[in-house]
Design a protein that fits this description.
Blueprint: E1 2-4, H1 9-20, H2 26-42, H3 44-55, H4 66-75, H5 78-95, E2 103-105, E3 111-119, E4 122-126, H6 135-148, E5 152-157, H7 166-175, E6 179-182, H8 185-194, E7 204-206, H9 211-220, E8 225-226, E9 234-239, H10 245-256, E10 263-268, H11 271-285, H12 291-301, E11 302-306, H13 310-320, E12 324-328, E13 344-347, H14 353-358, E14 384-392, H15 394-410, H16 414-421
Parallel strand pairs: 1-11, 4-5, 4-7, 5-6, 7-8, 9-10, 9-12, 10-11, 12-13
Antiparallel strand pairs: 2-3, 3-14
Helix pairs in contact: 1-13, 2-3, 2-8, 2-9, 4-7, 5-6, 5-7, 6-7, 8-9, 10-11, 15-16
Cofactor: Zn(2+)
Binding site for NAD(+): 126, 187, 210
Catalytic activity: L-histidinol + 2 NAD(+) + H2O = L-histidine + 2 NADH + 3 H(+)
Length: 425
């Protein structure tokens, strides 16, 4: 890994901003626009044609039958089912704490104000296929939606020549997903956004995907809501001399193996640790099954920043705003209040990032590419909306009428003023 030292904090921040700058590939955007238009025009026929073109799969039916799911569950090893059920229980118990509360108040006689919480009616979950089949993502997307009270949860996942991943279908059963369709890519996003003969239109689309999926989500936003534009995985680690190089290297590689564009960043005040981690990464890479992917990520997007103080370390990491942040400092919990920007934080040397990916309960659908500066992990709140309401008695209206009409006329909106004035007589 590249060790960056003898640079000022401002120089490093400039480097970080350059690494996270985003551009939209115009070729991908053009292709996605054509795919969306074709799906809107031709519906299911377009989805089946794209399955043949992009996935090499001929589909008679887009919807996955209950019998297919039953068979998949039987094919999954019992220890995998047990682990998925334990993960589901932890995810439920964590996200139950996120349920929002409605409120109502009466600031004075005759006035009632409030907000009611209501779930979205239908949500679409995108689950990648192929070499990236993640049953854990099924749980992370679907269970918060279930807790929120979403009435219909639809899953889409790319068709596979050898059939859909058994563990993914088992996870869908455990999570209580209502219907599953074999469709992937930009065409799946278009189907969820606009509906087809088989696939109903949804209110929101969640879940990660490739560049075509991300570009399609961006394109349909406004027609439907989306969770976020997910980018490559990333991990940031804050560590001092109390940390073990072997642990840090393993955690950096746990994210580097996802994608050749993944980011792995260590910020430390220890030159000894920086060099030891760089050496250990090279050692562990040699035995990693996904070495080619992880090596590309480390060579191109792996950095160790050496700075003087822990305050400088935290300042820089807040500029990185990583998807996953590990704090491997002595008394790690003491620093949580200083973290301004991160998707999910892992405190101490035993809170390794994969715990959050699979089992502990916090969500692993997280903001990437620096967007943790203004967005959050997926949660129950993403599947609910707030509806405000207001009630006034006649006396309460008369008390406020003059102030409302003054403000309305100040803004040049006489119709607003008159709507109040007609009720004063």
């Amino acid at each position: 890994m590249q060790i960056i030292k003898n640079e000022s904090i401002d120089q490093i921040k400039t480097r970080i901003r350059q690494q996270t700058s985003k551009t939209i590939d115009p070729i991908v955007a053009s292709r996605v626009e054509n795919i969306i238009a074709t799906v809107r025009e031709k519906g299911d026929a377009a989805l089946k044609a794209y399955a043949q073109e992009f996935d090499g799969v001929t589909l008679n039916e887009l919807k996955v039958s209950a019998a297919q799911i039953d068979l998949a569950v039987k094919n999954v090893a019992p220890e995998v089912i047990k682990a998925l059920e334990k993960a589901a229980a932890n995810i439920r118990s964590f996200h139950q704490l996120e349920i929002q509360q409605a409120f109502e108040d009466s600031p004075r006689p005759g006035v009632i104000r409030g907000t009611k919480i209501t779930p979205l009616s239908a949500v679409g979950i995108y689950v990648p296929g192929g070499t990236a089949a993640y049953p854990s993502s099924v749980l992370m997307n679907a269970l918060p939606a279930k807790i929120a009270g979403v009435q219909h949860i639809i899953m889409v996942t790319p068709p596979q020549k050898e059939g859909l991943n058994d563990a993914v279908l088992a996870a869908a059963r455990i999570a209580g997903i209502d219907s599953i369709y074999q469709v992937g890519g930009a065409q799946a996003i278009a189907a969820l956004a606009y509906g087809t003969e088989s696939i109903p239109q949804v209110d929101k689309i969640t879940g990660p995907g490739n560049a075509y999926v991300a570009t399609a989500k961006r394109a349909v936003y406004g027609q439907v809501a989306i969770d976020m534009i997910a980018g490559p995985s990333e991990i940031g680690i804050l560590a001092d001399d109390s940390a073990r190089a072997k642990d840090i290297a393993a955690d950096l590689l746990s994210q580097a193996e996802h994608d050749k564009n993944a980011r792995a960043i260590l910020i430390t005040n220890s030159e000894k640790l920086a060099q030891a981690v760089s050496d250990e990464v090279n050692v562990q890479l040699k035995t990693l099954p996904r070495e080619d992917i992880a090596r590309d990520a480390i060579d191109n997007n792996g950095f160790i920043y050496l700075v003087e103080t822990i305050d400088d370390m935290i300042d820089l990491m807040n500029a990185v705003a990583p998807e996953h942040l590990e704090i491997q400092l002595e008394n790690a919990y003491d620093y949580i209040d200083k973290i301004q920007n991160a998707g999910s934080v892992f405190l101490g040397k035993y809170a390794s990032e994969p715990l959050g990916d699979y089992l502990a309960g916090p969500n692993h659908i997280l903001p990437t590419g620096g967007t943790a500066r203004f967005s959050s992990a997926l949660g129950v709140w993403d599947f609910q909306k707030r509806i405000q309401y207001l009630s006034y008695s006649q006396d309460a209206l008369l008390d406020d009428a003059d102030d409302v009409t003054v403000l309305a006329r100040e803004e040049g909106l006489a119709g607003h003023a008159r709507a109040i004035e007609v009720r004063q007589s």
